[in-house]
Every structure is written in C-alpha cells, then in structure tokens.
Design goal:
Order of helices and strands: HHEEEEEEHH
Number of domains: 2
Radius of gyration: 25 Å
Structural class: alpha+beta
Strand order of the largest sheet: 1-2-3-5-4
Number of strands: 6
C-alpha cells in the first residue's frame, strides 16, 4: 500500500472519530407538546386514575447531573396528600412526569400545593401538562366542582433513594473504545 493510501486511511479514521464525537453532542430538533384541551373537572375526574391535592415535598431528577439530558427524562415527584377525590388513600405518593413542558411534562415546584389529575403508566402514576393538574391556588373551578374530598386513610412515608445514573458515562466509554478500535483497525490495515 502506498504512502498516499496510508495517509488517506489515517485521515479518514481521525475524521470518523472527530465526527462521531461532534454528532453525539450536537443538539437535535425537538417538537413542542401538543395537547387536546382537558374536559371539565367532572369529566377529568371520571377519566383520571387518581385525583388529589397535595404539597410537593421532594423532586428527584436522576439525570440532572448527566452531560446529556432530554426533555423526556423522567422526573419523580413526591407529594404529601392533603385531600383526595379518587384513587388515592395514602398520605404520600410518587408521581412521574417528563423533565420539561416541551415534552408535555408538568413542571412542579418544591413546597407548592397542587391539584393533581394522574393516570397509570408503567405501573405508576403519571402527570401530564395536558391534564387539569394545576397550582391549588389557581384551581378554584376544580375545587368548587369536585366538592369536599376525603383525607388519606393510610399513613406512609415515601423513600426515594437518589441513585446516580451513570448510563451516560458508560455510553461515552463504550463509544470511545469502539472509535479507538476502529482507528486501530484502519491504521493496521493501512500498514499492510
């Protein structure tokens, strides 16, 4: 193999490695959430798996320290249940939502009170921006329409262990190993 071909293979390998890293970290297009307007409080009570009011006591974002984040990353929110209208009898509950409203996630704030309309997804309760979930201070129509709820019957304390998600680092390590392997294969072939 000539010196010119060897150089071409080396530059091609370096180009592939560099391109792979650049393309991995470039932002991609995202699309905004699109919702059908929720029904009346009575209709949404009927359609939802659980309807309750509560105060946010903890928000767990297992991906918050990752280099790569997505608006669809799951967020776990622990609420201290104050009043329940349907499907909730525990004093604390975990609901899940997406990280951002861009992916129809409901953006809860710590120590704020909410009325929550949740549905079942993947074995847990899920809250969407498209539901009637709202700050309790802005839910007068819902509170009036739903009437007086009940206090939760079962006292529980939810324990979310904050485990760090190292999947991004594993992904990067595998990518680096694969790219280095490809580079050495190309370099070895160019020496022949």
């Amino acid at each position: 193999m000539s010196k010119v071909n060897k150089k071409i293979f080396r530059y091609a390998g370096l180009f592939m490695i560099t391109s792979s890293f650049i393309l991995t970290f470039l932002p991609t297009n995202s699309y905004a959430c699109s919702c059908v307007l929720p029904g009346t409080p009575e209709e949404e009570l009927e359609e939802s798996m659980a309807v309750f009011s509560g105060k946010v006591v903890k928000i767990m974002d297992k991906n918050k320290n990752n280099l790569i984040q997505s608006s669809t990353d799951p967020i776990a929110v622990v609420l201290e249940v104050e009043e329940t209208w349907k499907g909730m009898d525990k004093s604390e509950v975990v609901v899940h939502t997406e990280r951002s409203s861009a992916s129809c996630g409901y953006e809860f704030s710590l120590n704020k009170d909410y009325i929550v309309y949740a549905n079942e997804r993947d074995g847990g309760l899920h809250v969407s921006l498209c539901s009637r979930t709202a700050l309790l201070s802005e839910a007068d129509e819902d509170i009036h329409a739903l009437g007086e709820g009940e206090a939760p019957k079962e006292e529980v304390s939810v324990d979310l262990t904050n485990t760090n998600n190292h999947s991004v680092y594993i992904y990067l390590a595998v990518t680096v190993v694969l790219l280095v392997g490809v580079y050495f294969i190309i370099a070895r072939r160019s020496k022949r």
